[in-house]
Amino acid sequence: MSGGKNKENAARKKVGALQSRCIIRAALIAAILAAVGIFHAQTHSEAVLQGKKLSQENRRNRELLRENDELKIRRASLSAATRLESIAKEQLDLGQPTARQVISIRDEGTSSKEKGISAVSQTGASISSLPASGTSGR
């Protein structure tokens, strides 16, 4: 009988070892699934956060573009010739120059497009010579 008990004990040990391996495998599979689930939740959360940031940046971009358009319109209205002429006459007490106040400066070695434009002072002296419009300065 002792041989039968040894076989029984050996069989129980094999079954116990087999059960232990199954439990370890099940725990390992559960740990892997948990890690994959945590990774998925973390990446999904990060994607949602980045989506919100992108939405905020797009909204800020639209606001800045709108503000830029408004500033361009304001710049155009502030630099309008009629407005500048009005300020020159009313606030600075300036008027059209007389023929004596205009001094024409011409450079004989340049083409007609590059010829200077005369500047005017109240004393009639030339302040500076500016390049003609449409050309770059020398």
In short:
The protein is 63% helix and 0% strand. It contains two helices and no strands. The termini are far apart.
Average per-residue pLDDT, rounded, comes to 81
Topology as a string of helices (H) and strands (E): HH
Overall SS class: mainly alpha
- How many structural domains in the coordinates? 2
User: Which sheet architecture does the biggest sheet show?
Assistant: none
What is the subunit organization of this protein?
single chain
User: First CA to last CA: what distance?
Assistant: 119 Å
Structure summary, number of beta strands: 0
Shape: rod-shaped
Radius of gyration: 44 Å
Q: Are there runs of 5+ residues with pLDDT below 50, and where?
A: 115-119, 121-138
Beta-strand content bin: under 5%
Q: If helices are DSSP runs of H or I spanning 4 or more residues, what is the number of helices?
A: 2
Measured as a percent range, the helix fraction is: 55-70%
Describe this protein with a few key phrases.
138 residues, mainly alpha, 2 domains, 2 helices
How would you summarize the topology of this molecule?
Layout: H1 2-78, H2 81-90
Q: Could you characterize the architecture of this molecule?
A:
The protein is mostly helical and 138 residues long. It folds into 2 domains: 2-70; 97-138, no CATH class. Helix content is 63%, strand content 0%. The protein is rod-shaped and about 140 Å long. Residues 115-119 and 121-138 have low confidence and may be disordered.
